[in-house]
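Example 3.2
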Amino acid sequence: MKNLLRAIIIFSLALPIYAQQNFKLTASVLGSGGTKANNSLYGISGTIGQSAIGTSSGSSYKQLAGFWQVRLIVTDVEDESENILPTEYKLEQNYPNPFNPSTVIEYALPFNSNVSLEVYNILGQRVEELINSEQSAGYHKTNWNPKVSSGVYFYRITAASADNPPILFSQTRKLLFMK
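Structure, written as tokens:
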């Protein structure tokens, strides 16, 4: 270990002097301190002021010094958020809003629940029942394609968990339909 440390120290002290004598710095990046230099026989790249960090290569060798970096090749991306259950009931704002011709309504159920999702007009009259069923815990969404006139409407979710005693949840949001 001591010999390796000595070699790194000697390399870090000798390389800048050797590089100054034999190479012309052709480019540098001040933001990250990176630099590259080369001639017809050799090339060197590293970090300015950190001579022990970087690479040195020639026609028959390549030398790396400094911090090691493990490079990973990503072969698959999986959305893990679908596997996570919500911790609370939630009714999201519909999107797009205002909308024409349809909108998406999303909601979260932390438990298996009996769910009712209804749309009301400005007078409080029920216009349409979108959902009335038992649903599993998780994230859900539904589309609404209204067959009504333009205007302001409200959508309300009512959910009751299957637990004993049941957990009751109700929330209302406003949406705007424009023809």
